[in-house]
From TrEMBL:
Keywords: Ascorbate biosynthesis, Oxidoreductase
Annotated Gene Ontology cellular component terms: membrane
InterPro entries in the cross-refs: ALO_C, FAD-linked_Oxidoreductases_BP, GULLO2-like_C, GULO_Plant
Example of a GO biological process term: L-ascorbic acid biosynthetic process
Reaction catalysed by this enzyme: L-gulono-1,4-lactone + O2 = L-ascorbate + H2O2 + H(+)
Domain L-gulonolactone oxidase 2-like C-terminal: 314-352
Entry-linked Gene3D superfamilies: 3.30.70.2520
GO molecular function terms noted in the UniProt entry: D-arabinono-1,4-lactone oxidase activity; L-gulonolactone oxidase activity
Protein known as: L-gulonolactone oxidase
Residue span, D-arabinono-1,4-lactone oxidase C-terminal domain: 200-303
Length: 353
């Protein structure tokens, strides 16, 4: 038998302002930003040279305001609109139309700025900053789950032909994060339009996590990034600027030794993962004790816990099942060959040429 102790704290309010500004010096100011605001984050849109700083702190319970946070990406959408957005994205991918992706990225960013990224004053509309509301209404988001209209849904609902994308998430020791950003900036500066693909979604979301004693926790104060990018419906179909996302991914997990999120990454992110956690063996021991019959395990979970690369096959790099070492691991028949990274030359990526 195991006991779990929960702690509660009194209700409180938060005050949020988003500052859309130039992306210079993120690598130099992220620590101060995290220390200054309890609920801070930064969203970086590399192709647009834009950073969005979230100024988010507790305020007295009697502060005026009944705002909510209904993140744009989690709001209910017309099924027809979701399918149209996906259809347009597929057309741009097939045509290798970088400029088209950059146009939609610019439109998306402008809409987020206009609407406060889903913040609503007094629960109705966004009318300006700051937005003040109760913690329970500011921390939560995702109103698409509660839509009652038959023709609306979450944009990623698998029952419709809506959004289909990857998400990569990496945890960095704060001491290494600045250098990672500098490398990504160098890669961006070679051809900024190649980054429009993630700016169509949420750019690179930068958040902050305190150190933890948990077996799979972060041993020191850490920075976590998330970024989403297009995924083809067919696993054998390569993607526009595929090499860019693969290089960013390998920069994070291999050059800077970032830890993977256990539910948000492609398989290659877990290579040698056990070496990244000082208490990994203690976690495995606890897992075996609590689940001796492996009821909560699968072939996939066993593979990523072992941190070993699977046997390579033709096209395995396209879905992140492997890191390419030969052209056949990419899609040479479609013009994608295994090449070294542009900034991180130890990286091996599938590049169109």
């Amino acid at each position: 038998m195991y006991a779990v102790k929960l702690s509660l704290e009194p209700r409180f309010k938060r005050s949020i302002t988003y500052n859309f500004t130039d992306d210079a010096n993120i690598e130099d100011v992220f620590t101060d930003h995290a220390k200054q605001y309890e609920f801070a984050d930064i969203t970086w849109y590399p192709s647009k040279n834009t950073a969005v700083y979230r100024y988010d702190s507790r305020v007295p319970l009697n502060a005026s305001g009944d705002g909510i946070y209904d993140f744009i990406g989690f709001q209910a959408n017309s099924i027809l609109i979701s399918e149209s957005v996906r259809g347009a994205e597929k057309l741009l991918e097939n045509a290798k139309n970088v400029n088209g992706k950059c146009l939609t990225a610019a439109t998306t960013l402008a809409f987020k700025k206009l609407t406060g990224n889903g913040l609503k004053n007094n629960g109705m509309l966004f009318t300006g900053y700051p937005v003040v509301g109760y913690q329970g209404k500011i921390q939560t988001s995702g109103s698409c789950l509660y839509s009652t209209k038959f023709d609306n849904s979450c944009a990623w609902d698998p029952r419709i032909k809506g959004l289909f994308f990857y998400e990569s998430t990496a945890f960095f020791p704060a001491s290494k994060f600045g250098d990672f950003i500098r490398d990504v900036r160098k890669l961006r500066d070679l051809k900024p339009e190649n980054f429009c693909g993630i700016d169509n979604y949420n750019g690179i979301l930068i958040r902050f996590i305190k150190a933890s004693d948990a077996y799979l926790g972060q041993a020191e104060d850490s920075v976590v990034i998330d970024f989403n990018y297009y995924r083809a419906n067919d696993a054998s179909t390569p993607r526009l600027n595929q090499d860019v996302w693969e290089e960013v991914e390998q920069l994070a997990f291999f050059k800077y030794g970032a830890k993977p999120h256990w539910a948000k990454n492609r398989k290659l992110a877990f290579l040698d993962v056990q070496k990244k956690y000082p208490k990994f063996n203690q976690f495995i021991a606890a897992k075996q004790q609590l689940d001796p019959q492996s009821v909560f395990s699968s072939t996939w979970s066993d593979e990523i816990l072992n941190g070993k690369e699977s046997e390579k096959f033709d096209g395995c790099a396209l879905e992140g099942q492997c890191i390419c070492t030969e052209d056949k691991h990419c899609s040479p028949q479609n013009g994608y060959y295994c090449k070294q990274g542009l900034i991180y030359t130890d990286a091996r990526v599938c590049r169109y040429s």
